[in-house]
Amino acid sequence: MKQFFFRVVSLISLWFCIFFLFLLPPLNLYGQSGGLPLKELSLDDLEEFQDPSDNWVIAGDVFMDLYTRHDVHPESGTGVLVNTNRGESPQDIFTAWEHGDLDLELEFMMAGESNSGIYLQGRYEIQMLDSWGVETPRFSDMGGVYQWWEDGVGTGGIAPYANASRAPGLWQHLEIRFRAPRFDENGEKTEHARLEEVKLNGVVIHRNVHLVHPTGGAVSNQEVEKGPLRFQGDHGPVAFRNIRYKIYQPDKLDLKDITYQLFEGEIESASDVGEAEPARTGFLDDLNLDMLRSSGEFAVSYQGQISIPESGKYFFDTRSDGGHLLEINGQIVSEADDSARRSHSNETTLSLDQGTYSFKLIYFRGPRGGQP
């Protein structure tokens, strides 16, 4: 059974994100990277990092020497973060800001046989290794999720789907969509951290990977809601540029007073809903399809109240594999018919003040038999 997500993303400080997880199988409502711009990490200097050690420098460009295979030559200028791996004790570098849910994109360059890594929240490492030419990558190769140790034994490493590495000395592109662990009011973890998707040079190498434990070398095995982004700097030369990110805050919207009306029979548009007597009505604690009794054509109209905790602009990315209509305070946010049972995606930005608003969500589709 599928799930759908309703994520509303505000354009105010730190790209404040609010989301709900609903159990409505056929409809997916996402607020992801498409509608909000990524923020660029300034590489004019090292001000966005905590107490950087002298192995980290800002450069205008960098050249990785493929003959010595271990040397790096920064050129004057700005825009490139370089770990020269020089000095008595090269260290990792940490951002001055912390993150929970994070979308991250960057370019990087490895020296020959070099080794580095990106630690999400300082705890979960995406391995970076010169893996050019490796036919069957392991967790310790480029893009792998590094293992951790239990009683001196390594466990939990996750290899990438494929080796999408380029040769050392070439710029490579990495995209990470990370979802932080969730905790209840007592501080007990309720959901593992998760890699929603990781792409290396345009190739998906991880999807929906649960990070059940911090990896080896984590700043702490104590999992948290927020932590700094960490770049490994003690294993070999590496350079980064065009580091862009989007931070989400996982505060939940409050839906209340939810009622539903179930309609059975042929529904071609949202305007058809309500013309006949509903087959079933009732109250719900959350949005679900528990009221369905058959797999025939149907529509469900949900109505209720939604609380907006902070004034700002909110981005809605609504995706469904049937027809749908979403209204906030009578204003249509997203609408799609059920033509050819296609997947639909609609993006809208609304300015909403703090307060409580009415919402209506109509979902409808044809026979469900044979659907994925």
Summarize the structure.
This protein has strands spanning 4-10, 17-22, 27-29, 39-40, 49-50, 56-65, 71-83, 93-99, 101-110, 115-120, 124-129, 148-150, 153-155, 172-179, 182-183, 189-191, 193-200, 203-211, 227-231, 238-248, 254-264, 280-284, 298-308, 312-320, 323-328, 331-336, 344-352, 355-365. The chain is an all-beta fold and 372 residues long.
Order of helices and strands: EEEEEEEEEEEEEEEEEEEEEEEEEEEE
Sequence stretches where pLDDT stays below 50 over 5 or more residues = 1-34, 340-344, 368-372
How far apart are the first and last residues' alpha carbons, in Å?
9 Å
Share of helix, binned: under 10%
Strand % is over 45%
Principal-axis shape equals elongated
- Summing up helix and strand content along with how strands pair, one would put the structural category as mainly beta
Strand element count = 28
- Rg, rounded, reads 24 Å
Number of distinct helices: 0
Query: What is the overall pLDDT average?
Result: 80
Biggest sheet statistics: 8 strands, antiparallel
Description:
The radius of gyration is 24 Å and the shape is elongated. The N and C termini lie close together (9 Å). It is an all-beta fold. The strands form six sheets. Strands 4, 6, 7, 9, 14, 17, 18 and 20 form an eight-stranded antiparallel beta sheet that branches. The N terminus and C terminus are likely disordered. The protein is built from no helices and 28 strands.
